[in-house]
Design brief:
- By secondary structure, the chain is an alpha+beta fold.
- The longest helix has 14 residues.
- It is globular.
Amino acid sequence: MMLTLKPIGLGQSDDWPVFDSERHEIGRVMRHPQAPRDAPWFWTVTARVPQQPTDRGYAATRETAMASFKAAWLRDDGQP
């Protein structure tokens, strides 16, 4: 499954909406000011309601956050 990040474009280079292959926004990956120092990147799947504890987390790098996001999304077959 193809997931796409697109910069928010408001001068916030550390905030990325995540889109599925049909261009629906399904979550975000962002550098969070209240995140743990060793894991400043926060990711969250927002397309599922109610959200599960496994639909969000922190990561050390944006790339790791993206991989964790994708694993969480695919865990439920990408179904919101």
